[in-house]
Specification:
This protein has 29 helices and 15 strands. Strand 10 and strand 11 form a beta hairpin. The protein is of the alpha/beta class. The longest helix is centred in the middle third of the chain and has 33 residues, at 355-387. The chain is 50% helix and 12% strand. Among the domains are: 2-95 and 425-526, P-loop containing nucleotide triphosphate hydrolases (Rossmann fold, 3-Layer(aba) Sandwich), CATH 3.40.50.300; 528-703, no CATH class.
């Protein structure tokens, strides 16, 4: 697909091609607009799908007043599902508090095969679960069980927790059923279903009783009743009353499920005028324990499936262990409880008949999970070994039955916590990239975008990552539609030049941004050369002799041949009327300094003879004459199409004088930019604009001042 981009940040217009089922590497120097391309495509897809206006956020600042000049991206309308690796992914998706990547269970385990196996097991246990989940009385029973259990609060060594709802409501007796003396006039309010709201209202008005003799509720004289009114607030607390109501109702709902003896004792307890004794406290705790155990049995039966069967040796025994025998629950032994237990037990009997088949399905599912864990774990750990990271990962099963990806050092036992803060910047990026790959495979993204993914890594780690991501095989991004934007040239060298046989479906291009115009140029294997080869090729081209001087001098420098020919070439570039050479001269005993002296005629002839072997039309005097006339040098500069060559002509014209308005730009122009130092292999600067356009724009300003 061909993507047309207009009016997006620093891209005025341009077109790039993304080949489907191919790794599309787009190499570009910083400032070209790589991240803008990623953001523009993402915003365009989101806008198309969600009717949003994300793309408007990329409107260039220079066009803020032009309402007609809106950002436009065309050509990616077919993309429905994309995934981007960038800083946002690292910060928001990777390195969660309890796992290496958000949703690691879904990414590594829950696939089509896993879901199919779960469905097969669910189909065999669904009748029982549907029966139990569809019984409203059982649902109500479990809700009341939960209300009672919760009321006891946190367990303590002795008795009932003092701050629990049970203790707050009944420690002093049931003062709702047993209204204290003097408060009888308030009976209909205290024993109302919404009594806790009335008590709360009382508490809110109580402080106003001290403002005078009038009642704060009805504004009549309340002098004689003030103490009685205050007593309501002293005796009754809104939260305690609310808890008491809930617990009483829950116990009343459960009456039919208690044994006769238990029912009588509970009824006496919840209506008792005094608080409970230690013996009564222990009795209540015994009831709570049986309620909790029976509740667990019902819940286990309602959720019987792979999670509850995967750790048992024999499914048949596990099913038999779920049978409810009320002789083990004496406080809950009643006809009503037995009726509900019978529902569970009958369904369990049906399951016993197919236990063998069910065990086979469970075993098959366990085998699948083990296989997935081993495959994914080994894939990631092999990468960690190859890249030299002293860690390994493993999938750890949680209590929920899901698995989470964890990290552990090779030399220390125990998972790494707070992973994000413990790993280095490069380690975080590497882990995040690998996790991103598995997520992209899982989500089957139509388009996968990598925004400058590996520039922060060492050379050996870069290749290990690229091999992990793109080598041939189904467990990599090979054969997927991938857009990789990178200012790093090494991936291009590794994938296109060195190891082409290990990777398939590759495409590489160079992106140039020339004053807002985005230009794409293909990179073939033949375009990736050593700088020695590039110099040799350029010297053979029909280019100006001064450009050849630039390449030949650099060629001698690279091969460390700083001889007389090198000195002659250097003299040309430094605009010396006579060719000169640096030599050490003793200025006083034991003290030397470098000084320039003219070459002898013999030295000049020797150096020139070697140069002519490479530059047939080399003429020192003509080149010096040219370099001495700024107007002629300006013309050569303007006629030159290579930014690299322009930069050298600029340096010659201004003889390394800092004429740029920015000190940073000036240093870049005069000293810093030596593309040939970056890599053994590179692109020919005559064919690919490796010098940033903003640097050339700065040079142009000074050149245009020359008359």
């Amino acid at each position: 697909m061909k993507i047309n981009i207009r009016n997006c940040n620093n891209i005025d217009h341009g077109e790039i091609e993304i080949k489907e089922n191919t790794l599309n590497i787009k190499h570009a120097i910083n400032g070209t607009g790589k991240s803008t391309i990623a953001k523009a495509i993402a915003a365009s897809v989101n806008d198309y799908k969600n009717k949003s206006k994300e793309l408007l956020q990329l409107r260039p600042y220079k066009l803020r007043e032009d309402k007609d000049a809106v950002p436009v991206v065309e050509g990616c309308e077919a993309v429905q599902n994309f995934l981007i690796f960038d800083e946002k992914y690292i910060n928001e998706v990777a390195f969660q508090a309890d796992e290496l990547v958000k949703g690691s269970f879904d990414i590594f385990i829950r696939g089509e095969d896993y879901e199919r196996g779960i469905l097969e097991i669910e189909a065999m246990t669904s009748q029982m679960k549907n029966t139990l989940n569809g019984d409203e009385e059982i649902s109500g029973l479990l809700a009341d069980f939960e209300e009672i259990i919760t009321a006891f609060g946190r367990e303590v060594k002795h008795g009932i927790h003092a701050s629990s709802a049970m203790s707050q409501a009944f420690k002093g007796g049931n003062n709702v059923a047993n209204i204290p003396e003097g408060l009888e006039p308030f009976k209909k309010f205290i024993q109302n279903d919404n009594n806790y709201k009335w008590v709360s209202w009382q508490h809110q008005g109580a402080p106003f009783m001290d403002m005078g003799s009038d009642c704060p509720y009805c504004a009549t004289d309340a002098t004689e009743k003030k103490e009685i009114i205050k007593k309501v607030s002293d005796v009754y607390k809104p939260k305690a009353i609310e808890n008491l109501n809930k617990i009483v109702i829950a116990f009343q709902h459960l009456e039919q499920y208690f044994s006769e003896e238990t029912r009588k004792r509970i009824t006496g307890f919840i209506t008792k005028i005094d608080g409970y004794t230690d013996d009564e406290s222990n009795y209540l705790l015994e009831i709570k324990e049986q309620i909790a155990r029976l509740r667990e049995r019902f819940i286990a039966a309602r959720s019987l499936g792979f999670s509850s069967l995967k750790d048992v040796d024999k499914v048949l025994n596990a099913i038999k262990n779920q049978v409810i025998d009320l002789s083990n629950f004496p406080y809950l032994k009643s006809e009503a409880t037995q009726a509900k237990a019978d529902i569970v037990n009958k369904e369990l009997e049906k399951l016993q008949e197919i236990a063998g088949n069910l065990q086979g399905k469970v075993a098959k599912q366990k085998l699948l999970i083990r296989k997935l864990i081993e495959e994914h774990g080994e894939k990631i750990n092999q990468f960690l070994r190859n890249a030299g990271y002293n860690y390994h990962v493993f999938l750890k099963e949680e209590a929920s039955g899901e698995y989470r990806l964890k990290l552990e050092p090779n030399d220390i036992i125990g998972e790494v916590t707070e992973v994000k803060s413990r790993l280095s910047f490069g380690e975080r990026n590497a882990f995040a990239l690998v996790l991103f790959m598995f997520q992209a495979l899982k989500e089957k993204a139509d388009l996968i975008i990598l925004d400058d993914p590996i520039s922060s890594f060492d050379k050996n780690k870069k290749y290990a990552i690229m091999d992990m991501l793109f080598s041939k095989g189904k467990s990599s991004l090979s054969g997927k539609t991938v857009l990789m934007l990178s200012h790093d040239f090494e991936p291009v060298v590794d994938l296109i030049h060195h190891h082409r046989d290990r990777f398939e479906s590759l495409s590489a291009c160079f992106l140039e941004n020339k004053q807002g115009h985005l230009i794409e140029k293909t990179i073939e294997r033949k375009d990736i050369q050593t700088f020695v080869d590039i110099n040799t090729s350029n010297l053979a081209d029909q280019i100006h002799a001064l450009h050849k001087v630039i390449y030949l001098r650099r060629y001698f420098e690279v091969i460390n041949r700083k001889n007389l020919a090198f000195d002659v070439l250097s003299s040309v570039l430094h605009k010396r009327e006579r060719p000169q050479i640096y030599e050490q001269r003793e200025i006083e005993s034991g003290v030397f300094e470098l000084v320039l002296r003219d070459l002898t005629d013999e030295e000049f002839a020797s150096g020139t003879a070697e140069i002519v072997g490479h530059i047939h039309d080399f003429d020192y005097d003509k080149l010096y004459a040219l370099s001495s006339v700024n107007a002629e040098m300006k013309k050569l500069y303007l006629d030159t199409t290579s930014n690299y060559e322009k930069l050298h002509i600029y340096r010659m014209i201004f003889d390394e004088k800092a004429v740029a308005t920015s000190n940073v730009i000036a240093k870049f122009i005069n000293q810093s930019f030596h593309i040939e130092n970056d890599y053994i292999y590179q692109l020919n600067p005559r064919s690919y604009q490796m010098v940033p356009q903003y640097v050339i724009d700065e040079c142009d300003k000074a050149i245009n001042e020359i008359q």
